[in-house]
Specification:
Elements lengths: L1 H24 L2 H4 L2 H33 L5
Helix pairs in contact: 1-3
């Protein structure tokens, strides 16, 4: 499960980064119009949807691992 979540986190970062790159460093929104804006929005949204569950899983796993049975 940990490998899947790590893969999800990395894929989310790549997709979100690609969307931000297209938004900031290219003129795709001006040249492609609505299709370019849609592409950027889809990339960033998919990246966020992949990142959030992975982060929650890692937080829960590490907080449970940090607790000792004596406390």
């Amino acid at each position: 499960m940990m490998r899947w979540m790590l893969g999800s986190l990395i894929a989310g970062l790549v997709l979100g980064g690609a969307g931000l790159y297209l938004l900031v460093f290219s003129d795709i929104t001006a040249t492609q119009g609505l299709a370019g804006i849609g592409l950027v929005v889809v990339l960033i949204t998919l990246g966020v949807f992949l990142i959030v569950p992975a982060k929650i899983y890692f937080i829960l796993r590490f907080t449970r691992a940090g607790k000792s049975p004596g406390n």
